[in-house]
Write a structure and sequence with these properties.
The protein is mainly alpha-helical. The chain is built from 8 helices and no strands.
Amino acid sequence: MSGMSTDKLLIAAAAALLDSGGESAVTLRAVGAAVGVSHNAPYKHFKDRSALLAAVANDDFTMLTNAFAKIRQSSSKPLIKLQRALKAFIEYGQKHPARYRLLYSSPDLAAPGGDLEKIAFQSFVEFAGIVQEAQSSKDLPDVPNAALTGLLFASVHGLIDLEAGGLMRKEKGLSSATGTMALLIDLISRAGTK
C-alpha cells in the first residue's frame, strides 16, 4: 500500500475493517489507528464515518463496473460473458459480505440523485450491456433489456443473501448461489432459443 495517498490508505483500511469486523468495526478512530495516523487525521479527508463508508462503496462499485467492462470486452461468447459476470458478482458477495451489504443494503448510501447512486448505476449499465449481447445473439429471450437485467440482478442478490444467511438448503433445491444462478440462466437461455 506504500505510495498510496492518505485518503486511499484510509479507504483501504476501512475496507479491511469491514471485511474483518463488519460495519460496526469501522470508526474513524480505528481507521486512523490502522493506517498509523492520529485519531483526528481521518477528519481531514472525510467529513464523517458515512463519507468514509461512501468512499469504500464508491471504490467497490467502480471495481465491479471495471470487472464487468473487462468481461464485456473479452472475446468470449455472450452467454459465457454473462456466466462470468454473475460468477464475479457472487464471488464478490462471498468474499466481502460486509462490503456487499454496504453496497446493496445501506439505504443511506444509495440516496437518490447522489454521486454514489450514479456510480452504482454504472455497474448495472455494464451488466445490462452483457445481458444485451446475450439477447442479441439469441441466447436470451427478446424481452426489454432493463426488465431481464433487473430480474437477473434481483435473483443473484437474493441468492447471495440466502447463501450469506446460511439459508441455502439442498432439500429446497438451493445448493449454492452459483449453481442456482447457472440453472436460472440455463432455463432463461432455453426460452431465448424458442
